[in-house]
């Protein structure tokens, strides 16, 4: 399985997303090779130069046994930000890959700041991709509050090194936790306090985010984080999206993330959709126990958020779908194929922060924009 989606406008460069799954029935080495081969073929079919890769997220079924093999493969190098997370692909493979490429015809400038931070420069503007931010096995107390601080401190330090800060320049975070039913509250409490220290409050704004069950490759880490930041972004480029007729503000139930964040450029806009579930304007779970109806309400919420950002489902470059119960795959897969037939969709196992939510989705949309007063992408 290999699906690609691209966005391109004259003079602005081509952006491409790929989603690939491995051949089933092979050992892990064989499945890894099949993903690498399919990735190469998909790039060739799409006319995408392999050297334009910027970011890869690799979903694994067993990070403790598989991550070291992936790190030694061609999917991992100093010129691409590579995220590795244990969230089992649910169509039967041990590994799947989401990859993002940017081709501006001139070549991107790249600088590896550390093993966890990659700086990309395009059109004179910096893009900071941070992956695998974690305690790195040093904290065996299984304390989600402390590990949240460690991950964010790493990001904050990297931003400061670029003359940037968490409040004004971090656009998106992905936070993966072991046993989200237990450790999510500790992360939320520490993130709220940390955000308050850095001027991120209900009176200002938060950061688009996903907080979901998953794990990294260190045995004693209960939390691992990825992030995307724009050290040169102008505040007039950023807007925060919601539709309060359908979805409440996250601060209404004491969590701190934006439903979606739009970053506008002269010729396009990127809409970073946070983890979105079947929630209503009062913050309540809708359609408890019914995954099909939860998916329908989730997509209704997604459409509302995208509409607030002058985009639609047709602009989605990919969708990541998290299922609490793998048995629900048979219910939701055909419904997704009907609604989004040409969109790369990853379906992985990941429990949502409330047990009653059976499904959550996230993704990135790229929509046309026409404002020559804004910086170009």
Secondary structure topology:
Elements: E1 2-9, E2 13-21, H1 28-46, E3 53-60, H2 63-71, E4 81-86, E5 95-103, E6 109-114, E7 117-122, E8 125-134, H3 144-161, H4 166-169, E9 170-177, H5 180-197, E10 208-213, E11 223-229, E12 238-241, E13 260-264, E14 268-276, H6 291-308, E15 316-323, H7 329-339, E16 345-349, E17 359-368
Parallel strand pairs: 3-4, 9-10, 15-16
Antiparallel strand pairs: 1-2, 2-5, 3-5, 6-7, 7-8, 8-11, 9-11, 12-13, 13-14, 14-17, 15-17
Please, could you describe this protein's structure?
The protein has 3 domains: 1-107, 60s Ribosomal Protein L30, Chain: A (2-Layer Sandwich), CATH 3.30.1330.40; 110-233, 2-Layer Sandwich (60s Ribosomal Protein L30, Chain: A), CATH 3.30.1330; 262-274 and 286-377, 60s Ribosomal Protein L30, Chain: A. The chain is 26% helix and 33% strand. The protein contains 7 helices and 17 strands. Strand 6 (109-114) and strand 7 (117-122) form a beta hairpin. The longest helix has 19 residues, at 28-46. The two termini are 30 Å apart. The model has no long low-confidence stretch (mean pLDDT 96).
- What multimeric state do the chains show? single chain
Strand elements, count = 17
Low-confidence residue ranges:
none
Assess the beta-strand content as a share of residues. 25-35%
> What spatial order of strands do you see in the largest sheet?
6-7-8-11-9-10
First-last Cα distance = 30 Å
Question: Quick check: average pLDDT?
Answer: 96
Task: Supply the CATH superfamily name of the largest domain.
Answer: RutC-like
Binned, the helix content reads: 25-40%
Output the CATH class name of the largest domain.
Alpha Beta
Overall structural class, as computed from helix and strand content, comes to: alpha+beta
Total of helices: 7
Q: Which H/E pattern describes the elements?
A: EEHEHEEEEEHHEHEEEEEHEHEE
Task: State the domain count.
Answer: 3
Largest sheet: 6 strands, mixed
- What Rg is obtained from the alpha carbons, in whole angstroms? 19 Å
| Overall form | globular
CATH architecture of the largest domain: 2-Layer Sandwich
CATH topology of the largest domain: 60s Ribosomal Protein L30, Chain: A
């Amino acid at each position: 399985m290999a699906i690609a989606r691209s966005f391109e406008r004259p003079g602005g460069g081509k952006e491409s997303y790929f989603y690939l799954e491995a051949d089933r029935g092979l050992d892990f080495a064989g499945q890894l090779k099949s993903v690498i081969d399919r990735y190469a073929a998909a790039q060739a079919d799409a006319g995408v130069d392999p050297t334009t890769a910027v970011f890869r997220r690799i979903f694994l079924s067993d990070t403790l046994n598989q991550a070291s093999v992936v790190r030694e493969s061609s999917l991992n190098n100093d010129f691409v930000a590579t995220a590795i997370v244990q969230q089992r692909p649910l169509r039967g493979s041990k590994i799947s890959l989401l990859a993002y490429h940017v081709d501006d015809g001139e070549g991107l400038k790249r600088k590896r700041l550390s093993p966890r931070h990659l700086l990309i420069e395009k059109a004179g503007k910096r893009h900071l991709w941070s992956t695998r931010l974690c305690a790195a096995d040093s904290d065996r107390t299984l304390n989600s509050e402390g590990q949240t601080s460690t991950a964010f401190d790493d990001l904050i330090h990297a931003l400061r090194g670029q003359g940037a800060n968490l409040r004004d320049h971090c656009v998106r975070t992905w936070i993966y936790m072991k046993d989200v039913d237990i450790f999510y509250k500790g992360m939320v409490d520490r993130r709220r306090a940390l955000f308050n220290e850095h001027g991120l409050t209900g009176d200002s704004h938060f950061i688009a985010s996903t907080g979901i069950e998953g794990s990294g490759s260190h045995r004693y880490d209960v939390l691992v984080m990825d992030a995307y930041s724009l050290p040169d972004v102008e505040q007039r480029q950023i807007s925060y999206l919601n539709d309060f007729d359908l979805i409440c503000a996250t601060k209404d139930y004491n969590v701190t993330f934006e439903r979606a964040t739009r970053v506008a450029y002269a010729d396009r806009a990127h809409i970073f959709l946070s983890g979105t579930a079947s929630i209503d304007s009062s913050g309540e779970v809708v359609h408890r126990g019914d995954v099909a109806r939860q998916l329908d309400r989730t997509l209704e919420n997604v459409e509302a958020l995208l509409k607030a950002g002058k985009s639609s489902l047709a602009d989605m470059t990919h969708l990541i779908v998290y299922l609490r119960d793998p048995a629900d795959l048979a219910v939701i897969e055909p419904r997704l194929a009907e609604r989004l037939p040409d969109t790369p969709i990853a379906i992985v196992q990941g429990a949502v922060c409330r047990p009653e939510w059976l499904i959550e989705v996230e993704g990135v949309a790229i929509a046309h924009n026409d404002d020559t007063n804004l910086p170009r992408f």
